[in-house]
Design brief:
Elements (H helix, E strand, L loop, with lengths): L5 H4 L1 H11 L7 E2 H8 L3 H13 L3 E8 L2 E8 L1 H17 L5
Antiparallel strand pairs: 1-3, 2-3
């Protein structure tokens, strides 16, 4: 039996990854919007996003919208594959057939 990816397995990071996986490959979401969707504090979300970014699973793009700094988040190709593998492994652990 394969092990579940410990980077994704933490509840908060699983929620973040799952939310980002719903976006199309070329889409991103603003940090405040993801924070709102997940009901997380900015500090908690930031900490978990950093861990996912360090693993190469999440891309963070900081830019400006007018004069306002804006942070966009998206799942990298590696992150999407890791999430798909995680889901497949979880199904296997639960005894479900793909």
């Amino acid at each position: 039996m394969s092990e579940l990816d410990p980077v994704i397995h933490a509840a908060a990071r699983l929620r973040i990854t799952a939310a980002l996986a719903t976006l199309h490959v070329d889409e991103s979401i603003t940090f405040p919007r993801l924070q709102e969707l997940l009901g997380m504090t900015a500090g908690n979300l930031s900490t978990h996003v950093r861990k996912l970014e360090e693993a190469g699973y999440v891309a963070v793009e900081k830019t400006h919208r007018g004069r306002t700094p804006t942070t966009y988040l998206s799942l990298t190709k590696q992150g999407r594959r890791a999430f798909e593998d995680y889901v497949e492994t979880l199904r296997s652990v639960l005894g479900e057939q793909p």
